[in-house]
């Protein structure tokens, strides 16, 4: 019976080719536009470190004075930690792994004469960062906690930068001049490019290129290397050394916690630390301001999706809805016009179920064809998104789950569009129609 | 034209007619808001900068290592740049409009004030106002002996009190002292105060991170920068000489000091274009969505009307046989469409208002001006009439003889 209905549906669709093409195109456009925007949203809210993200947390303290008025249009100083707080958390050593870090952009002066000096982005961090984030090494290794303590001038290069500076021979053991200082290369990492860059400061690019160097944070502070994140100061700062000031926040801090018990204990530790600092008179706000965000929770808190993208998603969904209503009306008119034919079938013994199946197959065919064209249109849409200037643009690719999602959406949309017309057509009273024939 | 028969016909196609009304309403609501969004975006890209945009160039350099004698380096660079053929003015400045990189400070009107009044941006650089081509509307520009060296001030904070004067924009003056002249008034920053000696018509801040309302909250200080403390050279030239001056200037700077690299060299027009790129892209997307929506709706109307015409062939034939003219039949379908469109539009207006309220709360958009409602209505009436014309003409062409045929 199924094959017969398929044949009937094909004949019916062929009878009015223009209309069929119109319905397929309409649903295709709606699906294509929606899937383009859903895919963009999907890559922007992606898990940057699948498998590892569940164990990563970022602690936040509130060292601001009571009378500090935070401007709603500026960055929140409590998004980052101050140097003394970061060092205290680091020394407490309560998590499996912990690291403080900040982004920096430095001028590289290659030894090779044929390469002009250029700027690279990288990260100043403490020793645990490699093991904690699972950054894999191509050659060599990271530095140790002892290097942190002694402020050693060592650097770990990203693969791309290593190749650019030293060619295929690799730069381990060589010296590279960053800014105005020499650093010894001790390791080369595979390019590590989590998207979004969850570990970077809010004001830095969230969807950017990989970190091309890592060097000890203590050395960076020692040499007063420039950072490229937000630095928020309050109160009187001791201008002599603002980086280590207790009144300026600029550091990102991450910890790895393996079990719920450990998370609970760390949360308690943050409360205790804040209470202790308050008792000492350094903190003024209640200790309950201290927070521990999970990685995905932190991304949600930062709200990386630009309002334009959300607006575009709403637009696309609105458009899809109009398309669905459109197809619903067309299918309904089409089916009702065949009331006579349906009534004859009913009079000859077809049950309502049979009619429902027959017309359902016809609308499903429109849906499948619409879904396929929607897939093509979405690819076209994503291609155009990739040519936008935004930093997230090059990520706009469809993965398998999105591919399946597109198809599910297409089928759901066409079912929704076909359901009402099919149901209505089944309820045509045969006797009345037959008389009219 | 009798409307009642149309209603009784539509009653027999309740659901289909309702769906069409719904589609028109949704389209109307989305189109109204989308057109409004487009006008907002395009208006934003027109934002006045207050500088001679078509004549300005920026060359940004980066030093390799700290330059030993930043002050003389800067003066030498500027002298060389002024010699480049076509250059009418050159300045070394701390920031440039539309580059998204700015230094800002909180200001107060009264030193005893607890919270700052607002946050304004700080331009500095010798001869900045004249080089930028900002238009003075009151007071005067800085005199040569008013300028202090920024580097000296950095090493000796005491000198901050010596700055003394500032030029602000008209918009900032109006914001700080509504309805009064800003000239001669004091602005306080931290422990220092400066007196307003001049007002420029407008000078946009380099980044709009504080929102578009704060775009013109700008101050210019009489500070001379050095090659150690600033990296942006601004040149002014005739619009048709820009490219050639740009490449020549980069060459001159590179030659004067090989220990630096030229990071960027752009015309201000290009910098502005890049700054508003997102707004233009968004406007483009919205135009696309509007076009797609209207086409889908129009085609939906065509499809539905065609069905109805085909379905009513016999009734049309009977009407024709009973004396109705072709014009009567044509009018019938046109009126039917007009009725459906009107119901849809009324519903659409309510919906448009609702969507606007949603956007106002979520995306801080202004209220939809009333004139967008009639515009949306006219657009949909027109599209409805155009779409129904083809099927209606086909209906009018049905010969009366159809009435006498069975099936």
What does this structure look like?
Chain B: Keywords: Cell membrane, Membrane, Transmembrane, Transmembrane helix. Chain B: It is found in: Cell membrane. Chain B: Belongs to the ABC-4 integral membrane protein family. Chain B: Residues 47-243 form the MacB-like periplasmic core domain. The complex is a heterodimer of chains A (437) and B (407). Chain A is α+β, with helices and mostly antiparallel strands and 437 residues long. Chain A contains 14 helices and 12 strands. Chain A has helices at 2-15, 17-44, 83-92, 129-133, 145-150, 159-166, 217-222, 260-279, 295-302, 307-337, 339-347, 352-386, 400-426, 430-436; strands at 56-60, 81-82, 97-109, 118-125, 137-140, 154-158, 175-178, 181-189, 213-216, 232-233, 248-256, 291-294. Chain A has a 6-stranded mixed beta barrel. In chain A, helix 2 runs antiparallel to helix 10 (307-337) and helix 12 runs antiparallel to helix 13. The longest helix of chain A is centred in the C-terminal third of the chain and has 35 residues, at 352-386. The mean pLDDT of chain A is 85. Chain B is elongated, with a radius of gyration of 33 Å. Chain B folds into 2 domains: 4-46 and 277-404, no CATH class; 53-275, no CATH class. Chain B has 12 helices and 13 strands. Helix content of chain B is 50%, strand content 17%.
């Amino acid at each position: 019976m199924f094959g017969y209905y398929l044949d009937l549906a094909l004949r019916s669709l062929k009878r009015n080719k223009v209309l069929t093409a119109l319905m397929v195109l309409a649903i295709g456009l709606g699906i294509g536009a929606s899937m383009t925007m859903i895919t963009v949203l999907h890559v922007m809210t992606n898990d940057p470190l699948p498998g590892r993200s569940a164990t990563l947390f970022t602690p936040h303290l509130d060292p601001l004075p009571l009378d500090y008025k935070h401007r709603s249009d500026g960055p929140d100083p409590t998004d980052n930690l101050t140097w003394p707080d970061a060092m205290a958390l680091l020394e407490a050593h309560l998590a499996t792994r912990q690291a403080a870090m900040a982004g920096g952009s430095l001028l590289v002066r290659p030894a090779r004469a044929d390469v002009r000096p250029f700027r690279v982005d990288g990260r100043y961090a403490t020793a645990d960062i490699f093991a904690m984030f699972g950054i894999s090494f191509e050659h060599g290794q990271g530095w140790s906690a002892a290097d942190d303590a002694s402020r050693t001038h060592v650097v770990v290069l990203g693969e791309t930068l290593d190749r650019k500076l030293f060619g295929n021979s690799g730069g381990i053991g060589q010296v590279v001049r960053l800014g105005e200082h020499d650093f010894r290369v001790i390791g080369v990492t595979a390019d590590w490019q989590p998207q979004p860059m969850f570990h970077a400061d809010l004001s830095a690019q969230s969807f950017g290129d990989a970190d091309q160097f890592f060097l000890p944070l203590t050395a960076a502070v020692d040499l007063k290397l420039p950072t490229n994140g937000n630095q928020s100061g309050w109160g009187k700062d001791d201008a002599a050394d603002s980086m280590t000031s207790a009144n300026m926040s600029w550091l990102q801090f991450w910890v790895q916690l393996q079990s719920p018990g450990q998370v609970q204990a760390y949360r308690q530790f943050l409360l205790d630390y804040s209470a202790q600092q308050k008792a000492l008179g350094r903190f003024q706000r209640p200790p309950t301001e201290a927070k521990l965000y999970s990685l995905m929770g932190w991304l949600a808190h930062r709200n990386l999706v630009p309002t334009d993208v959300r607006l575009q998603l709403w637009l696309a969904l609105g458009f899809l809805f109009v398309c669905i209503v459109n197809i619903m009306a067309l299918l309904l008119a089409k089916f009702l016009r065949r009331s006579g034919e349906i009534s004859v079938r009913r009079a000859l013994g077809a049950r309502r179920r049979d009619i429902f199946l027959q017309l359902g197959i016809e609308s499903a065919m429109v849906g499948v064809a619409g879904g396929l064209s929607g897939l093509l249109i979405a690819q076209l849409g994503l291609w155009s998104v990739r040519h936008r200037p935004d930093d997230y643009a090059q990520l706009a690719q469809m993965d398998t789950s999105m591919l399946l999602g597109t198809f599910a959406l297409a089928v759901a949309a066409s079912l929704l569009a076909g359901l009402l017309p099919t149901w209505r057509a089944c309820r045509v009273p045969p006797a009345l129609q037959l008389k009219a024939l | 034209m009798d409307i009642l028969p149309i209603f009784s016909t539509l009653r027999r196609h309740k659901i289909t007619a309702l769906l069409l009304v719904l589609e028109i309403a949704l389209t109307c609501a989305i189109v109204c808001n989308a057109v409004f969004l487009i006008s907002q975006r395009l208006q934003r890209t027109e934002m006045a900068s207050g500088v001679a945009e078509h004549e300005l160039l920026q060359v940004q350099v980066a030093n390799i290592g700290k330059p030993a004698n930043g002050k003389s380096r800067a003066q030498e660079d500027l002298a060389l740049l002024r010699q480049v053929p076509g250059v009418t003015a050159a300045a070394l400045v701390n920031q440039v409009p539309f580059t998204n990189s700015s230094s800002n400070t909180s200001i107060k009107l009264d030193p005893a004030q607890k919270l700052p009044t607002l946050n304004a941006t700080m331009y500095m650089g010798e001869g900045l106002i004249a080089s930028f081509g900002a238009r003075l509307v009151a007071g005067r520009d800085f005199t040569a002996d008013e300028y202090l060296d920024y580097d000296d001030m950095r090493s000796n904070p005491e000198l901050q009190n010596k700055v003394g004067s500032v030029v602000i924009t008209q918009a900032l003056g109006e914001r700080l002292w509504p309805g009064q002249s800003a000239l001669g008034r004091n602005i306080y920053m931290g422990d220092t105060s400066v007196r307003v000696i001049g007002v420029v018509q407008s000078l946009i801040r380099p980044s709009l991170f504080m929102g578009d309302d704060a775009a013109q909250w700008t101050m210019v200080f009489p500070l001379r920068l050095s090659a150690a403390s600033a990296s942006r050279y601004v040149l002014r030239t005739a619009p048709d000489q820009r490219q050639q001056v740009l490449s020549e200037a980069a060459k001159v700077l590179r030659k004067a000091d090989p220990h630096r690299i030229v990071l960027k060299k752009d015309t201000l027009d290009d910098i502005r274009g890049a700054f508003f790129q997102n707004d233009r892209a968004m406007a483009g997307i919205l135009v696309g969505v509007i076009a797609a929506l209207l086409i889908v709706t129009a085609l939906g109307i065509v499809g539905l009307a065609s069905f109805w015409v085909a379905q009513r062939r016999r009734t049309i034939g009977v009407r024709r046989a009973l004396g109705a003219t072709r014009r009567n039949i044509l009018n019938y379908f046109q009126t039917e469409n007009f009725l459906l469109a009107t119901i849809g539009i009324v519903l659409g207006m309510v919906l448009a208002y609702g969507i606007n309220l949603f956007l106002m709360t979520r995306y801080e958009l202004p209220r939809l001006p009333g004139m967008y409602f009639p515009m949306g209505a006219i657009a949909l009436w027109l599209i409805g009439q155009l779409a129904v014309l083809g099927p209606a003409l086909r209906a009018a062409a049905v010969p009366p003889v159809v009435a006498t045929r069975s099936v």
